[in-house]
Structure formats: structure tokens, C-alpha cells
Design goal:
The chain contains six helices and six strands; from the N terminus they run αββββαββαααα. Strand 2 and strand 3 form a beta hairpin.
Amino acid sequence: MKWLLALLLAASAGAAGGPRLFFSRSFPPSVPAYLQVTLDREGGVAYREAPDDDDPLQFRLSEAETGEVFGLAAKLEYFKRPLEAPAKVAFTGTKTFRYEDGAQKGEVKFNYTQDASGRALLEWFERIGETARLRSELERTAKYDRLGVVSALLALESAVEHKRVVTPDQFLPLLDRVTENDAYMHTARERAAKIAGIIRSSKP
């Protein structure tokens, strides 16, 4: 068994050594006060709301989404140059971009940037975080608070309609489960079916 454990640890270390992007935002007045997203080159996402969270919410971006995010990092020279704008603006939190690929590393911190690629990348990470929170809330209410499912579904529907959700397919298994379960209110089942239909109809 020791050799198997060693093999698994080696494989894990190898996977962790691939290209990876890191984003965090720390802003105590906001909810959440801290968020962190890591994305590997295979599309694996880990979302945390505390630096020491050892049980992050995980999902995967599509190949196209992952390519776009890493493409923006490349345009930003993998964070080897400053992004902070000279203009004086209100403080909205310390944002951190980091790139890691073996010995190659780059990191930049900023409050506000006017760089088009920087703003686009920030938008991607904000959407990833928003998606993670929507999924976490829907999973929580579906399991522990069935009366709260409708509110969670309404928030998800609004986000889907405003193109705020990344990889929306990830919600389909849960939406189908709510739709087909008589234990949920008719309103919740109807809403879940509607959102699933929107997601399926938007697929290429």
C-alpha cells in the first residue's frame, strides 16, 4: 500500500506543477470579505472564501473558457508588470493575480486598473466566484432548506440571463434533480425546469 500512496502523491505533485492562475480579492466591507480562485490549465477550478480553506468548491471550466482566461494572462505578460492605474479612485479591495508554472512565476497586486486585458481577466474571475457562490447556495438549499430553493433559483436565473455564469452545464444535474423531485414545491420544480431549458437551448 505504501507504494500506491507514493504513486498517488507523485501524480498529485506532478499535476500541481502545471500552469496555474491564482486570483484573490480582499475587501472586508464586502460579502464575502475574501475570495480566492485557482485555475489550472486543464480547467480545474477551486473556489475559497478563506485562505486556509482545505475543502474548496471545485468544478471545471470548458476548454474554450480556460483558453480565454490563460490567453488574457499571456497578454498581461503573466503579471510581470504593474497594473495599478494612476487615477485616484475609491478603494474596492486588494486584488492579486498570480501565475505559476514550475520556476516561472509572476504576481501583481492592484486596487483598480485601466488595462483592458486586466479588466477582462478580473471580470472572468469575478464571474467564476459568482458562479461558485450560486452553486453553493443552490446545493445548500436543495439539501437543507427546501423553502429557500426558489430564492436560490431566482438568483441563478438572473445570473444566467445576464451571462454571469461560467460553464452553466454544471448546474444541469442539480436542476434536473429538483425538477423531478415531488418533495420540492411546484414553483421550485417549474423554475428549475425553466432554467435548465435556457441552459440547454443556449448550448452550441
